[in-house]
Fold this sequence. Notes:
Number of domains: 1
Structural class: mainly alpha
Shape: globular
Low-confidence stretches: 387-399
Radius of gyration: 20 Å
Number of strands: 0
Distance between the termini: 18 Å
CATH topology: Growth Hormone, Chain: A
Largest sheet: none
Amino acid sequence: ALATFIDRIGGTLIFPFFALYITDKFNVGMTEAGWLLAVWSISGMLGTLIGGAIADKFGRRNMIIFGLVASAFSSVAMGLVNDLYLFYGLSVFVGLLSNIAGPARQAQIVDLVGEERRGEAFGIMRVAGNLAWIIGPTIGGLMATRSYLALFILDAITSLIVAVIYYKNIPETKPVSVEKEEQESDSFLDTVRGYLVVFKDKMFNSFLMIMVLMNIVYLQLYGALSVYLRDSHGLTPQSYGMLMSINASTVVLMQIWISSKTSKRPPFLMMALGSLVYAIGFPIFGIASTMAWFLVATLIIALGEMIIMPVSGAIAAKFAPEDMRGRYMAMFGWGWQFPSIVAPIIAGLIMDNLDPTILWTMSGGLAAFATLGFYLLHLKTKKRFEEVEATPLPQTQEA
């Protein structure tokens, strides 16, 4: 949790202001920023697939350390590039490397925590991450008005600090039984081919498709919203950063309590509830015009987050066989990465060519549709997911 906290501080310095950085530095509209973010995300999807296979074949720890170091150097490079087309090329490289360790991180949590406690474990990790959101956007908002390069450098420093923490203190967590089987059987190419099993899991892929719809909505909070508040309402990056910090503070204060309640209930029903909360919260941005109402919308969305995020991770872990956790969590990552391609493009096209408030009305509609989809999955998977048997912690390798 400490490593997550430090690493997220670096990420939250940059991520909320990335669209602002692109539009300011390269003097382009939101559409161009959306396409650039899409290029980054497409390469990130490939990085996630590669990382998931590596995590299943060779383990989690070294994959995470490599990802952190690569992220540090690529972050500084992005802050130094002054040409838009060179930035496009760098985005391909950065997207690949910055996402390659994601499945290993998720699989590590699943390795360490018994099935009956995973929802709460993902909730605790969210608390650590959101503690960083309290600090990061506030500092980032202040620094963004002076030097974006300083943000990239500080992000790189935090990544290197976390890499050292992992190297010194975190053991390999891949279950020994799986390690022995991997050594005796599959080549790395066979491990990659194992994705065919994931692609044929119909219920898991139905879950991912609905996740995509829901996350297209959610990601507007961190991309389009900052530009929308600046251009349509004249709010500064500091004001947006304050909203994000309040969102994070709410999660820190309430996430563990909410996770303790949702973990005892049917997970897909909780996903439907969280999506319904999104359907209420996001349209408020389109009809509100005061900071007070923007705060109300942010708090409503925070409630939806606290329901959805830990539960979704636990659902993905439930689907995954022990020897395929990295690959299943990689595909779960696609449920975030594909929306990160589509969401900024949709936002850019609407905000640059239509009434920007349409974006928030559309977001409410998509969230409502996702609510229906998760409820139908609840009906189809009720027996499988309603009761979670207590499972012992798996034996793990020594460092």
